[in-house]
Fold these 2 entries.
Entry 1:
Amino acid sequence: MLRQLLRRDAAVRRALVSAYVLPEAVRCVQCGLCSYNCPLGIDVRGHAVAGKAVVDDHCLTCGECVARCPRGVLRFESSSLFVPPEGGA
Amino acid sequence: MARQFVLVGNGPASLAAAEAIRLCDAQAEITILGDEPHAFYSRPGLAYYLAGHIPQSQLYSRPDEEYRRIGVRRQTARAVGLQPLEHRVLLQDGRSLSYDSVLLAVGARAVRPKVTGIDLQGVVTLDTLEDARGIVAMARRARRAVVVGGGITALELAEGLAARGVETHYLLRRDRYWSNVLDPDESELVETRLEHEGIRLHHNTNLTEILGRRGRVVGVDLAPGGKIACDIVAVAVGIEPRIELAKAAGLQVRRGIVVDPHLAASADGVFAAGDVAEVLDPDTGEHVLDSLWWLAIEQGKAAGTNMAGARRAYRKGTPFNVTRVGGLTTTILGCVGQPTPDDDLIGIARGDSEAWRRQPDADSVEAGDDSSRLRVLVGRQHILGGVVMGDQRASRPLQDLISNRVDVTAVRDRLLSNREGLFPVIEETWASWKRGGRVL
């Protein structure tokens, strides 16, 4: 049971580390809830206003901004950039 | 000599216009006039400030450095006159500014209904940051509040006050919330959520008088009977475009400033955009009012481009909003109107569109459970409207399918039969369209 849970958690983490946060500018009303809740203080709103993906070395893809956005502006998009090589870590 | 552009109003339409003008004209002198002593802030964000989710400082989304970066002068000044023949804007402090082109993007203000006691201290509306600050300050001492009105703003006020520990009563003039946009099940879902948040709903109840003592609110009188003692009366019965400046200048105005497909008003060099503008709806050929953030930005962009000299017609996009209604993330798209009148609103509220109230020639298909609802209006060839409450997986697909007028004839029967569930068919249709630009 525990092993199953840990395996699922690891799968989620693997999926998240190979993703980035992608905003959709047309939905953003610039309220700033995303930036306010980012544990690392990334200017998520600035990215959303500009319609740019949050490609920031500090981003943990923790999902706080995605979950808290009241307007569904942000989503995870997978990226080949962060995918570990076959057999790698 | 550099051309002079004056943008009256410091909201999203003006800033978008400024950016568009700058893209076309590197030398232009651009001035934004705002009558609030604040840098640009997120007006929709006021709801989250009111509810205590963010501090005031978080609302400022476009700091003054951004104005400087695009070479825009921001002045705190109230425009009190427009002289279209002389091409001048008159300011309250006695100064005037000449322009080659001027944008009127002054927005809309909350309607204050003519009811006894409306001017008492403690009667509040939610238009500006100062309004929100005032409500937050009052909520610290208030024990009980009464909210009247409809649409999104009434709920933002009710939920904001409740979140600050104020016992909140919400009066509805008929038997359900937002009855000309939401269907009965959607209204019920919202109302249930509000009740869970501790908000007390009073159906079929009219406010007949606001009671005061020594200039302050002490309660409300109700029809068909009864009173509620309270310290705050929050009013959100709709908004009205701020057309005074345009009207006094002799521009063509109806409910808003009437603009042509280039967003030009009826005088040379004058344009209008955002909540104040009555814009042509290409689907009906009628001029409509919207109070939607993204449409204001699009209109500002189009107006700015035309002010700078391009002749580019603006085609109004599908009105949509994604917001929280009763704590549920909700997307409203296109035409979703209901035949039941809504007496809680005069016209539209903020975050609202007249077009939503239109009842399309379409079949309605619904799906949902206790926490989510999905309603899709399926026309002969296209999906014409949709409401997505709670689970938002259908929000983006529907937005694409509706705004791009995707031909759904091939899946129409499957959508209408609803045998496979609504969302899987929408998702499949969307994927098919994304792959090939049409639905197979």
Note: The mean pLDDT of chain B is 96.
Entry 2:
Amino acid sequence: MMVDLSAIVSAGPYLMQGLWFTLQITLVGVAGGIVFGSLLAVARLSHNRLVAMLATAYVNLMRSIPLILVIFWVFFLVPWAIGWLTRSGRPVAVGASLTIFVTFVLFEAAYYAEIVRAGFRSISPGQYSACDALGLSKFHAYIYILFPQAIRAVLPILLTQTIVLFQDTSLVYVISATDLLGAATKIAQRDGRLVEMYLTVGVIYFLICYAASQLVKQLQRRLAFGVR
Amino acid sequence: MIEIDNISKSYGSFQVLKNCSASIARGEVVVICGPSGSGKSTLIKTVNGLEGIDAGEISVGGFRLAPGVSNVAALRRSVGMVFQSFELFPHLTVLSNVTIAQTKVLKRSKAAAEEKARSLLARVGLSAHIAKHPAQLSGGQQQRVAIARALALDPEVMLFDEPTSALDPEMVNEVLDVMTGLARQGMTMVCVTHEMGFARSVANRVLFMDGGEIVETAEATKFFDDPRTDRAKAFLAKILKH
């Protein structure tokens, strides 16, 4: 069997569209995941037992089920849930993109929460006392003092998790979304070019992830020697 | 200025503070000393609410602390604290360390906060280092920044929790000099310290603690020349032997 390069070239624009959606999912997942995850981390460290327990339960639940199942839940169950809540009697359609964005934020937040929590725990208790002694409010202490230090401490792990997230986006093919892998699959099946398409996307995934992991390595070296 | 009225505190079944009472006047410099584990640090941390109390009452200026009182933000604004391990914010510059609480807690403008910070940093002899990060400074310099950071909120009382214990010997004096300067200017100060020379020459009074109790309270010179209690005599004999 011969590899047909022209098939790859002609599929290029469609694959790039898919890649763009993959990157969008990644960006939304990272931004939303870190924001929601940080709130979960703060909640888990809260002295309010109920708040801490709810956050812990959420994180443990999300970390104990496969991502693919969460995608199905949000895709199939949320329309019914919205329909039921609004008493319209039937499911309300939710777009595939919105489903995917929501899913990734909900799911990845659990993982980011654990990473950020580790960052908070790496900060010496004296820093918390110093914030208290200066009269800083909890909100100000977290925003200006604790969160920046926590993120710095776990930045390499945070970025590694982001690379995993980038790869996990390929799972959206189960609801027929056109991400990079989805685009490749559609062309592969239409034109019978399975080898070309799956090789091409493999190379694209590899290049992006490898470059990102090298970046993490660089960063780790700079953080190790640089002034905090 | 500070009234500590019969306070007690326990960690589980271990009682760290037993019915401690003390009264500190405005402008007074009081040193708390005693063997390690005697409750000195815990006592000083109850004054700004970093440690809660199980019984008794503390009043600082117009503010009141009692078991279960949790609204301590206003009190902390008027009480500055310096820690043994400095606890500067490592990700901020020296200047930002001194301005952050001014802008966030007192809502001062950035310009006013920086002006105040610059003058305080000049006062502790660190004008040349304002753009550096804490990790680039020596321990003595870091502790002086920490003092400037606490002074930036114009506190009425300064608490020092073993401010020189984490320092190399050659840096102890630069910090004590700053503290002596503060005392001369009339700041009300409570210091947990092992620096007996400082206690003798700068402090008005000494509180001697042992086993969670305030065993002896005396004028500084009197405490060192003629301690009344046996426990204070034994303590002084141990530390002043060399």
Note: Residues 169-184 of chain B form the longest helix (16 residues).
